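User: My advisor asked me to double-check a structure prediction for DNA-3-methyladenine glycosidase I before group meeting. I don't want to rely on an old file, so could you generate it fresh from this sequence?
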Amino acid sequence: MTELRRCNWCLSTDKMTHYHDTYWGVPLHNDQELFAKLVLDLNQAGLSWATILNKQENFYEAFDNFEIEKIAVYDENKEQELLQNAGIIRNKLKVKAAIVNAQKVLEIQKEFGSFNKYIWSFTDGKVLQHQVNDESEIPATNELSDKMSKDMKKRGFKFTGSTVIYAFLQAVGVINDHADYCYRQAELMD
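Assistant: Sure, here is a fresh prediction for DNA-3-methyladenine glycosidase I from the sequence you gave:
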C-alpha cells in the first residue's frame, strides 16, 4: 500500500495533516464558516498556522461559534472577557477586528444577499487552480488578494491586508494551492 503524498507544510503534526486532508482548500459557501475562517486567518497574522489550529476550539467557544449577529454587537465587557481568555490570541486590535468585521459582514449580506456571494464574486464563483510544483513558489499575495483586500478595506474591514486575504482564499478553497504531487490537488480540481 502506497502512502499518500501531501503538501509538505502539513506534515509536522497529526492535527496539521488532518486539517490539510479535510478542510484546507475545500470550497466553502457558508457565511458563518467563511466568517470564522476570516477571523482565524486575521489572528494568524504574525504567527504560525499551527498556533491558531491548536487554539481553534477555544476560538469557537470564545466567539460564540462565530455567530456573526452575536459578534457584531459585542460590547466593552465582552471585549475585556476575550482579552482575558488565555485560550485565544489576546490582541486588542485582533479582537476589535473580529467585532468590526462581523458588522461589515452584516452590511455585505444586505448588499449582496450573502457573504458567500461577495467572496466568490471576485472569481465569478470559480476556483483558481494554481500549478504548484514546489511549495516555495506559492506567493504570499497575488492580484486577487490585492483586489479583495483593497475592496474590504474600503468597506471598513480590519486586519484584511493582502497576505491575510491570500491565506483566507487558500483556506476557503477560492484558490487551490495544493502542490501538484499532493493527492488533494487533483481531488479539489473543478
